[in-house]
Amino acid sequence: MKRPWTSFTAVLLAGLLSSGAAQAQAQAEVPTEEQWYGWQNLIGLGAAYSLVGVGLALDEDTEWIAAVGLGVYALSGPIIHLAHQRPTEGGMSLGLNVGLPLGGALLGVGIACGVGTCRGLRGPLKAAETAIILGAVGMLTANVIDVAVLSFEEVPVTTGVAQGALGAAPAQYRPVFQYSGRF
């Protein structure tokens, strides 16, 4: 009676081990390289800052253009990260794009009122100036972090295949300036 259970256990164990080895071979590591897609974020930021500038520069009731520009600023980076299937970086980008400017503006108001310039006739104006300056510094800081740190992805390395003189192939984008190391 012991022999059937022993052989059943041996066959089951052999089957499990062989399927694990087959899965390990099927999941062979594909070589990857790090690719920068921050240029796409820079295009979105250029459009956002252009809209804000146009909205503030025109004399008529065009503040809504600046508001659209701020929306493009806040959402372009996260949308680009999501398009690259990187939701964590998209969330971090949204947090940076909203949090750093607001934090800078609140810090500016705190500094202006902390040193006593909130009092008097020009007090609120001085607080608003400081908030705008530090909010803009927060925006630029968020941009630098998003483009320089978060905009890298691992892509599979394509093997070199000889092609004819005429042929269609996907464009390979290379950054103009890149800091990286390979060993």
Automatic annotation (TrEMBL):
Regions that span the bilayer: 36-57, 64-84, 96-118, 130-152
Keyword Transmembrane helix assigned: yes
Signal peptide positions on this chain: 1-24
Keywords: Membrane, Signal, Transmembrane, Transmembrane helix
Protein name as catalogued: Uncharacterized protein
Annotated source species: Chondromyces apiculatus DSM 436
